[in-house]
Specification:
three-stranded antiparallel β-sheet, EC 1.13.11.20, cysteine dioxygenase activity
Length: 240
């Protein structure tokens, strides 16, 4: 009954916001700057419609000349490059994926996560959350998806965990991600055991400028081979 009430409330909110936006529609975003400003207007509301954000991000057609300054690649890992902080409501980030690079299996800190492919193709593998009643069990795959240029996808923690990969060994990929609310800690999971570890994620660059490499210091680092993540720079692929 409680789940049904939540679903009904969510549907009512979606309908209310759709009616409001139908009466005062946002112009279609012709540029990346238009997209950023439109998203700021959408996120002024205390409640947001996932469908509306998906649709609005879909309307922007990728133009490399507009996002090129944020697209900073690294030979060793995929990179997270901050584009805008969304007046504190969201982070908009360009992720750059070299050939064969991918994330570890991770959650999203109770945030909304929208992804739009700007260039190339990305593959998503979704997993069920590990059982609290078992010490060790391999994570169970639930779905797989492939996204090409201008495709938009969405996930939150109620939908499960996922891993995103550029499986091409000849082409790079670039994607635009919106996280609301913003976060800097996530949980990463070992596919073989279901063990989890909290890690910190940071930015490779901010607003087009490379950030100083964080001081790792003497703090303990996670076992990347087991968790699939690194606590300093970004989420790393698992070593299978």
């Amino acid at each position: 009954m409680a789940e049904m009430d939540v679903e009904k409330r969510g549907n009512a909110i979606d309908e209310m916001l759709k009616k409001k936006r139908d009466q005062n529609p946002l112009p279609e975003p012709e540029t990346l700057d238009d997209l950023v400003q439109g998203l700021k207007i959408i996120f002024q509301d205390n409640e947001i419609s996932v469908e509306e954000v998906n649709e609005y991000m879909s309307k922007y057609k990728s133009n490399p000349r507009e996002w090129y300054k944020y697209a900073k690649f690294d030979h060793h890992r995929y990179t997270r490059n901050l584009v805008d902080q969304g007046n504190g409501k969201f982070n908009l980030i360009v992720l750059c994926w070299g050939e064969g690079q991918g994330s570890g299996i991770h959650s999203h800190s109770d945030s909304h996560c929208f992804m739009k492919v700007l260039d190339g193709q990305l593959d998503e593998t979704m997993y069920s959350w590990p059982s609290d009643s078992e010490d060790e069990r391999e994570l169970q795959k639930t779905e797989t998806h492939s996204y090409g240029k201008d495709s938009v996808a969405y996930i939150n923690d109620s939908m499960g965990l996922h891993r995103v990969e550029n499986t091409s060994h000849t082409n790079t990929a670039v994607s635009l991600h919106l996280y609301s609310p913003p976060f800097d800690m996530v949980e990463c999971f070992d596919q073989r055991t279901g063990h989890r570890k909290k890690v910190r994620v940071t930015f490779y660059s901010k607003f087009g400028q490379r950030t100083p490499f964080p001081d790792q210091g003497p703090t303990e680092q996670p076992d990347v081979a087991r968790t699939g993540c690194t606590s300093v720079e970004t989420l790393e692929p698992e070593n299978n």
